[in-house]
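Protein record
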Amino acid sequence: MLNRFILMVVFVPLAVILIALAVANRELVAFTLDPFNPGNPKLTLTLPMFIFLFVALAIGMVVGSLATWVKQGRYRKLARQRGVEAENLRQAVSRIPAVQQGAATGPALPKPTA
């Protein structure tokens, strides 16, 4: 339910805005990588403006995702360590004989009478 709400409130208006940008920016734009010789055809790319906008958006999303992934690395490492520790404790408990397990939990409670 929450996913559908987020889709309708956030992503649908965002899609409408992106489509409007794409329609409004259809003119060809020259993107050159040589600032000293802008007419160099080998280092100039001519595409519609909306493609450059979408590429910039995609690069920003990738860089942001990588930054978040790197920043959360310590938490993933801690989760892995704790998972290994929990598995080691489960194996240690499963190796305890049944007699000792009953003694470790204390005496059994009496059964209720009807």
Q: What stands out?
A: The CA atoms of residues 43 and 110 lie 87 Å apart. DSSP finds four helices and two strands in the chain. The mean pLDDT is 85. The longest helix spans residues 2-24.
